Amino acid sequence: MKKLVVFDLDGTLAESKSSIDAEMAQLLAALMKVTKVAVISGGDLPQFERQLLGGLAPGASLAGLYLLPTCGTKFFRYDGKWEKIYSEDFTPAESAKIIAALKQTIAAARLGIEKTWGEAIEDRGSQVTFSALGQQAPLEEKRKWDPDFAKRQKLKAALNELLPEFYVQLGGLTSVDITKPGIDKGYGIKKLRDTLDIAIADMIFVGDALFPGGNDYPAKEAGALSIAVRDVHETKRVIEAIVACLSTESH
After folding, report:
1. Domain residue spans in the chain?
2. Closest CA to 61 of 29, 92, 38
3. Is the confidence at residue 251, as pLDDT, over 60?
4. Do 91 and 197 touch, CB atoms closer than 8 A?
5. Which residues touch 239 (CB under 8 Å, ≥6 apart)?
6. What would the mean pLDDT of 113-122 be, rounded to a whole number?
């Protein structure tokens, strides 16, 4: 029996930068009755609060829910309130170097960005994120900007040369995430193993970026049974199947 189901957030549990819908809230509540649940995403804790926690069904048990913002560089669990277990933060000098490299790379790449919605570069403490169209860009604009990942793969290659001591990965629809080396969703999976004393073989990971170079891929490389989904609708069907299987196994 699997003991922990781990999800990506954007594009998996919710549309990009949007809250989970009522059906997803009900499905997660049902899942949390039969197993522990964790969420790992490139967003920081306020994004989890807006997209996930604010949409959960009233009365949903939070005791078995674990949050790993910024691709697993932070870890929160609930004990009457959300408590931070760790945060792998950059030094000010590291953040400054990353931001300077991003600005240099973006200027050289000629990405053809005509309009942005909100800040494009965000220092999240343990992760620096470049959102090509800005943090508040409309979903439809984000979907059509880089559907084949070509623009961001070009950025990633350039950043890998400028920042060899850091880890660069693609996230969401328009984002590039930069963390300390070795700190990614695979790191988060291992932290879940160590903190909760649950073997990776007893975990399931569900995400929409499980391709090589995608920010979900390290979870697969860490050894978690991984289920690739195309969108939120597919995630709902996966949750239904997991709940049905675990409910059967528990009887």
Report:
1. 4-88+183-249, 92-179
2. 29
3. no
4. no
5. 5, 27, 28, 30, 31
6. 93
pLDDT tens for each residue of 181-218: 988 899 999 999 999 999 999 999 999 999 888 889 99
Quick one: pLDDT band at residue 120, thresholds 50, 70, 90? very high
What angle is formed at CA 58 by the lines to CA 54 and CA 60, rounded to 5 degrees?
A: 90
DSSP states along 21-86: -HHHHHHHHHHHHHSEEEEE-SS-HHHHHHHTGGGSPTT---TTEEEEHHHHTEEEEESSSEEEEE
User: Coil, helix or strand for 177?
Assistant: strand
56 with 25: CB under 8 angstroms?
yes
- Lowest mean pLDDT of 101-110, 125-134, 175-184, 242-251, name the range: 242-251
Are 184 and 205 in contact by the 8 Å Cβ rule? The answer is no
Fold of 92-179: 3.30.1240
Other C-beta atoms closer than 10 Å to the C-beta of 139 total 11
User: What is the mean pLDDT of the segment spanning 45-62?
Assistant: 92
Residue 216 contacts by C-beta under 8 Å, 6 or more apart in sequence?
A: 8, 185, 205, 207, 208, 209, 210, 226
Distance CA 10, CA 47 (A): 10
Angle at 235 between CA 4 and CA 72, to 5 degrees: 50
Instruction: Look at the domain 4-88+183-249 and name its fold.
Output: Rossmann fold (3.40.50)
Q: Amino acid identity, residue 138?
A: P
* E strand intervals along 164-237: 167-171, 175-179, 203-207, 225-228
CA 84-181-194 angle, to 5 degrees, is 45
